[in-house]
Amino acid sequence: IDSAGAKHYTKINIGAVENINPFERKVEGVTTTKRMKNNLSDDNVVSQKGLIEMFDSTIGASTVLMPYGGKTQCTETQVSVQKLPVGDGFTNTASIMAYGYNPFIAKWSPYHGAAYAVVDACAKVVAAGARYNNMRFSYQEYFERMTDVTSWGKPLSALLGALKMQVELGLPSIGGKDSMSGTFRDINVPPMLMAFGITTVDARNVISPEFKQGGNYIYIVRHTPEANYMPNVEQLKSNFDFVSEKIMQGDIKSAWAVGFGGVAEGVAKMAFGNKVGASLECDEQMLYNYSYGSFVVESCRTLNHPSVELIGKTINEEAIFVNGTRLPLEELLEANTEKYTTVYTDKGKAGEATRISDGKGLVKKYEGLKVDKVKVYIPVFPGTNCDYDTARAFERAGAEVKMTVFKNLTGEDVFASIEEMKKHIDECHIMALAGGFSAGDEPDGSGKFIANVLNNKVVADAIHALLDRGGLMLGICNGFQALVKSGLLPYGRLGMTTKESPTLFRNDINRHISQIVSTRVGTTASPWLKSFEVGDIHSIAVSHGEGKFVVSDQMAEQLFRNGQVAFQYVDAEGRPTTDSPYNPNGSSFGIEGIIDPSGQILGKMGHTERYERDLMKNIHGEK
């Protein structure tokens, strides 16, 4: 590498590799059932859903595939697909990214490990519906401390392996990061070159990995390594092109790039999402071996290609059959998910029967405002992060949006921001409080910073004037928390909270959760809800750590009687519930959103603003 600065030289020895087949993988167990379960509970295969849910997967209103999909949201997604940000425009162009790395292959041979990291990233991208031809790479390199000629040979070997694949596939690397600090006393990290591959894809062409229906064919599109165990590049190119073509033609309905847990991992995880089972007839050991560059595909038609092998069919039964042995999906899913549940809790308190909002109540009929152009005001507080998504949703509905930043660096900034808020509240028809984590959810609870601003006399008078002239208010997530803690919900006026008032509290699972939930419309007695019917069910993104609506039985009775319960969390049968995961936070009576007695103010935890066409494609229901 020719770079500025002093030149450095070192001697390097690339050692010989052990003469073994690096792709044979032994899974312990005396029966097929034991082996399948042990495979799914391997540290490198087991579900990390609880960890992933702690990160907001829908912010930006750009997520094409959720991290877990299907009607149960249990089929893992192998790629990150995000529409490109285009402001108030619309696009179908998305970025698609995947990574690849196997520490055991890399430990055996850093050269092979890096080569297969590139192959793995390519295969995952292809399995989701993109073509590999225009991919670009970035590498994360992590090696032991360099102390002798042999240790220096490991990063060089890995770089050569990655470079060989780049040259043969015609795909360049555009950057990367290296670290040679992977040594602690006598412990060394395995040689690591992790490949991150990225390209673009039309969101309309993206497919998800969960099996779609029973009666389809299950094929392996097999990659067979060369005699020296290096990737067979010409075969890979042919396989990649074939899979891409069949996805575009609509023949391949779902696909999985075979990874650490082999074909067995792929078939099981593809089955979890929609509870569509599989009947397999094949060599069982083949199911567990490493087979990077291969695919498991579900096809509605027979496939013909030199690398294609039929191994079974999808079935309308919640089980996987391996050469006649029946494996219930429920047991396999438990094996795949139970390992980390004590670390990343996924179950709240046991639920109880809950009341259903019937659409009746005492909410006043909204007379409405007739204006040429609806003006929406969105104040942006420290920690607000959903302002752009919310503004874009309003603009697409035809509104004119004004956003201002509430500055709190100095006392003068605060007073100036309050006056600015008053000015824009006086001029708007709708005031919307977007989601986020205002003031880092401090002090000791979410939404308090915004609530204090709303209760400032100057701001409060402007809000009351807005409502008195027929204006509307909306609060989503952090905005809902502020509406409740300020008294605007459920009372419709500021400063009316008591110790008996509802509040929003920490989720029962005691952590942040980002997922899709189903909510039922409980009333249409609000201009916000007039396009719905009572009983309509929607799939809505949630992302919060303090979303539990806590309310006394007496106050809940009043909310239901008045018709103020706008939305409730529902289970797979459409019944309001307090059970997780359907109710993600343990909200009392399954309440997700409420309105005030006039119907002019709506608050809800779900991020309605985060959906547009061709987003969340692996999620069922009306979005």
Strand arrangement within the widest β-sheet reads 18-17-19-20-27-26-25-22-23
CATH architecture of the largest domain: 2-Layer Sandwich
- Specify the number of helices: 16
Share in β-strands: 15-25%
Which runs of at least 5 residues are low in confidence (pLDDT < 50)? Answer: none
Helix content: 25-40%
Kindly report how far apart the N and C termini lie: 51 Å
Major sheet summary line: 9 strands, mixed
Q: What is the CATH class of the largest domain?
A: Alpha Beta
Determine the CATH topology of the largest domain.
60s Ribosomal Protein L30, Chain: A
Shape assignment:
globular
Number of domains: 2
The CATH H-level homologous superfamily of the largest domain: PurM-like, N-terminal domain
- Overall pLDDT confidence: 95
Which class do the helix and strand fractions yield? alpha+beta
Quantity of strands, as a count: 27
